[in-house]
Amino acid sequence: MEDGSISxxxxxxxxxxxxxxxxxxxxxxxxxSWTPEHDSGNEWFQxxxxxxxxxxxxIATQGNGNIWWWVNTYYVMYKTGxxxxxxxxxNNQRMIFQGNSNKDDVVTNKLKNPFQADTVRIVPTTFxxxxxxxxxxxxxxxxxxxxxDNADDDDDDDDADDQQVxxxxxxxxx
Length: 174
Prior knowledge:
Blueprint: E1 11-13, E2 45-48, E3 53-62, E4 70-79, E5 86-87, E6 89-90, E7 93-94, E8 97-98, E9 107-117, E10 119-128, E11 134-146, E12 161-165
Antiparallel strand pairs: 1-2, 2-10, 3-9, 3-11, 4-5, 4-8, 4-10, 6-7, 11-12
């Protein structure tokens, strides 16, 4: 997200404070952060990769950078295709991630159970000052290859899709 490869049209939010735009929700954005219009408890920040599918491995967050606001904890929802959003879980329970404890530091959470998604939603649960969020999603492309894509494929299962992970953007340690 930081490099601008995800366009602002691929970012959706529950609401936006007029002075804290959704596009500012990118990690290291110097203008501030995304902040919702109100801290209602139903706020979220969403990134859509559609039509692409990504394997999400890490999630990094930052606070506002200019004001002493940040998200202390959050959970993650995701989906692929027409599926409904589902919560990211560890040990069969909604995983509450530790976020930030100040406005500047980047906190990176490595996922115990990486997931494939075309949509990822961050849902703040606790915050300091106001909800203020800058994020980065780390992972790589998932390439769906149909059997028809390869004439030499001897696989007799014409309905099966092979999924391949492209290592183009794996974070360090993978």
